[in-house]
Write a structure and sequence with these properties.
- The protein has helices spanning 43-50, 72-76, 94-104, 109-122, 138-150, 168-183, 195-201, 219-224, 243-247, 273-282, 297-305, 309-312; strands at residues 3-14, 17-28, 32-36, 58-63, 66-67, 79-82, 156-160, 187-192, 204-209, 212-217, 228-235, 252-258, 261-267, 287-292.
- By secondary structure, it is of the alpha/beta class.
- The protein has a six-stranded mixed beta sheet with strand order 6-7-8-3-9-10, sandwiched between helices. A four-stranded antiparallel beta sheet has the order 2-1-4-5, covered by helices on one side. A four-stranded antiparallel beta sheet has the order 12-13-11-14.
- α3 packs across α4, α4 runs antiparallel to α5 (138-150) and α5 runs parallel beside α6.
- The structure holds adenosine-5'-triphosphate (ATP) and magnesium ion.
- The site of magnesium ion (MG) has 5 residues, from α1.
Length: 313
C-alpha cells in the first residue's frame, strides 16, 4: 500500500478559535477516502489546507514522503480540486471553462484538446460543450465543476461536498464518475455529510466532528464496532406485562417499556428474537410491529457523538 498523503498533528485556528485539533491521517493510493462530518466539522478547512489554499498553525503534510511546505507548486500539479462553492465562469461555454482550468495546470495543444474531451465525456456533458454555463441546471454546473478538476488527470482528486443541493440523477451521475476516475487510477478524497453516499462509494472513512477525527475505518469495520443492537416491538397493549421474563433470555442487556413500545437492547449476534416473541405470546401479548435497528453509519455517528448527522444540518 502506497501512502500518497500523510498529515501529522495538524492544528488550525481562525483568529482565536481553534477549529482543527491535532489531527493525523493518511490517504493511500487508489482509495476513495470519505471525510464524513456535520456542518462545521472542519472538512473544508482540512481540504483547503491540503490544497495549499490555507495556512495552518501546527503539523506536517507529506506527499509521497516529501514534506510539501516548500514544494507547494511542485505538489499542486498532482491535485484536482473540486471546491464546495461552484467556481465557474457563467458567461463562458462549458468547454472554455475546462480549458481555462486545464491551462492553469499547463495543458496545451493536443493534450489540452484530449483533456477537455476526456473531462466532458466523464461527466456526461459532451453534447453541451458549446453552451454557456448560465444556461445550465444546478446539477450540470456541479458536473462541470468536476470536469474542470479532472482534465489534467490528477493523481489525487479532492472533492468538497460535490453533490450538495442537486437532483438524484445528477448525484448518481457524479458518484458513477467518481468510481470511473478511481478505475482510471486516481485517488479520491471526498467530503460529504450524506452517509448514503459514503456507504455507496467509500473504500475507507474518516468521521470528523468539531475538528477532531472521532473514528476511522472501512464502512464494514465501523458498522461492526457496535456490539449491541436495539429491537423495538410495538404491542397492542402493555397491561400486566412482565419484563422480568424477558430479562431472563440470553443476550438481553436492557428492556424498557414506554407506553406500548418495548425497547430491547441485545448483544449483537445473540438476538434470540424467537425467544422474545415466544415470551410475549406466552403472556398473551399481541405484537403489532417489530423493528430491528439497522447497522448503518447514521447509528455509528449517533453512537459516537450522541447526535444525529441528519439533525445537524
Ligand atoms: N474564514 C473563517 N473565519 C473564521 N471561522 C471560520 C472560517 N471558515 C470556517 N470557520 C469556522 O471553522 C469551523 C470549520 O468550518 P469548515 O467550513 O471547515 O467546516 P465544514 O466541515 O466544511 O462545514 P460545512 O459542512 O458547513 O461545509 C466552523 O466552526 C466555521 O464556523
Ligand atoms: Mg465545508
Amino acid at each position: 500500500m502506497t501512502t500518497l498523503i500523510e498529515v501529522k498533528h495538524l492544528s488550525k485556528s481562525y483568529q482565536k478559535k481553534q477549529v482543527i485539533h491535532d489531527i493525523s491521517f493518511s490517504i493511500n493510493e487508489g482509495e476513495i477516502l470519505c471525510l464524513l462530518g456535520p456542518n462545521g466539522a472542519a472538512k473544508s478547512t482540512t481540504i483547503n489546507i491540503l490544497c495549499g489554499l490555507l495556512n495552518y498553525d501546527q503539523g506536517e503534510i507529506f506527499y509521497r514522503n516529501e514534506k510539501i511546505e516548500r514544494n507547494l507548486l511542485y505538489y499542486k500539479k498532482y491535485l484536482g480540486i473540486v471546491p464546495q462553492e461552484l467556481a465557474l465562469y457563467e458567461d463562458l461555454t462549458a468547454e472554455k471553462n475546462i480549458q481555462f482550468f486545464a491551462s492553469l495546470y499547463g495543458l496545451k495543444g493536443e493534450k489540452l484538446k484530449a483533456g477537455i474531451d476526456f473531462a466532458l465525456r466523464s461527466v456526461g456533458l459532451l453534447e453541451h460543450r458549446k453552451e454557456k454555463v448560465e444556461t445550465f441546471s444546478g446539477g450540470m454546473k456541479r458536473r462541470l465543476n468536476i470536469a474542470c478538476a479532472i482534465a489534467h488527470e490528477p493523481e489525487l482528486l479532492i472533492m468538497d461536498e460535490p453533490t450538495v443541493g442537486i437532483d438524484p440523477q445528477s448525484r448518481n451521475h457524479i458518484l458513477a464518475t467518481i468510481r470511473k476516475m478511481r478505475k482510471k487510477g486516481m485517488t479520491i478524497l471526498y467530503t460529504t455529510h450524506y452517509m448514503e453516499e459514503v456507504e455507496e462509494i467509500s473504500t475507507r472513512i474518516i468521521i470528523m466532528d468539531h475538528g477532531k477525527i472521532i473514528a476511522e475505518g472501512t464502512k464494514e469495520w465501523l458498522k461492526d464496532r457496535k456490539n449491541e443492537k436495539e429491537i423495538v416491538i410495538q404491542l397492542a397493549d402493555n397491561s400486566a406485562l412482565s419484563l422480568k421474563e424477558i430479562y431472563q433470555i440470553e443476550g438481553i442487556m436492557n428492556v424498557q417499556l414506554e407506553e406500548n413500545e418495548l425497547k430491547i437492547t441485545v448483544i449483537k449476534g445473540v438476538e434470540n428474537l424467537d425467544s422474545i416473541i415466544a415470551k410475549l405470546i406466552q403472556q398473551n401479548k399481541k405484537i403489532q410491529n417489530i423493528v430491528i435497528e439497522a447497522d448503518n453509519l447514521e447509528t455509528v455517528f449517533l453512537d459516537l457523538t450522541g447526535r444525529s448527522l441528519r439533525d445537524v444540518r
